[in-house]
Known about the structure:
The chain is mainly alpha-helical.
Amino acid sequence: MRREKIEITGEVRVRYAPSPTGFLHLGNAQSALFNYLFAKHYKGTWVLRIEDTDLKRNVPHGEESQMENLHWLGIDWDEGPDKPKEEFAPYHQKERVSLYHKYVQQLLDAGLAYKDYATEEELTELHDQQIAAKIAPHYDGRWYGATKEQIKKAEAGGRKPTVRLHLPKNHVYSWDDMIKGTVSFNSDNIGGDFIIEKSNGMATYNFAVVIDDYLMKISHVLRGDDHIANTPKQLAVYEALGIPQPLFGHITLIYSLETHKKLSKRDKNTLQFISQYRKFGYLNEALINFIAFLGWSPIGEKELFTRDELIEAFDIHRMSTSPAYFDQKKLDWINSEYIKKIPIAELANQIVTLINAAETDTALKLKELKMQENLEFIKKVVQLYRAEAKTLMTFMEKIYFIKNSDRHKFSYADLAEFDKNNVHKILLVMQKEIQNTVEPIDYDSILLVIQKETGQSGRNLYMPLNVVFTDNKSAPQITELLAIMPKQNVEIMITNALKWLNQ
């Protein structure tokens, strides 16, 4: 049953603790954002901690990706590796190994943990036997209560032990989840005595995270719903050590709107990583706005929030227990609305940044054309297409199209709706007028001449021209588009269309 109200009292300290085993993805960003909003709403502290003990899986630049993209999103931490506070440092787990050893030894000395000398082969055999017997896989505690002789023999044989926490039988681990309400697990159903220290001396996640949260005085833990099975194990550590536990809240996971399954790397139609949204021209504020609605909803119908408005409106009690569905159309709409609000000069500068970074094919092509040096032209394109742009990539593609408009192969399919003879007349008059004009060309005046000499106006004039110069009946104000096209491109495009009409 969901708890209606959980009072948030005392000093609020929350953490976002990524592993540098991958780059910042949507799920990471969701967790980071809700921790950030929670901390800021309740005037608390947001801590960045790097859980980097899994040395084999750490990827190059994984930590840098996390920090750089969090910065880009504007989710900045109060404490972390680059903002240490002496009382809580260090902020990398691999630098805290001695702290974990201390608490492991404390549990060993108290008889609440023990050394396990089982080999990988023995554990695999145990697992296979349990599966064959249709028993839930669990450790059978075979080394709990081992004699000195058994231990001496194992060590003489070169076996290196892990350390396991001994769980009491039929014990209930329960907590009042800030999002899900009361959640309970029986100790008999969580896999048996679990490892808290590996044979290489490294603490496991479920042990290290408890020690870190305790020593860093973390008051509330907000994390993804996929961690809920870890919580009873962590509660077991808290109980064994006799230390206070934080309040937990488990955030709903993000699901695909198409498959209704958890979003995964196999969903090729969805960008997974924040760096991808960045390089394809999504705005950080728009992305923050979108992610905030993946698992939370405000009071009222308002959908567009500034960062400060999100902080003010955030309420942990309005977090959802239902799946959060990723809606690409909604994201594109939010981004387009932000584009409409941002000054043209600022949008142009962001486009220049993307071109300079050259992280997409379009950006690379524009950089080769040195478009980053033509800020005034970029501003004109932004002005022309801002009403329809979904992302900054829209502008970049239009820039490339305009600069290379004479090279594009058009189908002219939509010209079939119009009288070919009339279209032919329109283009011939336009061709003649342009030939006798130097840039900048007043296309509004030229269209008046075309109307006078051909008798064509309105839809019968503008739509054919849209098709000729964009291959689409729908286009921005055609005279404004032509005004920023090179004259020779316009002439070539007229020639190409005339060739098609003459077929």
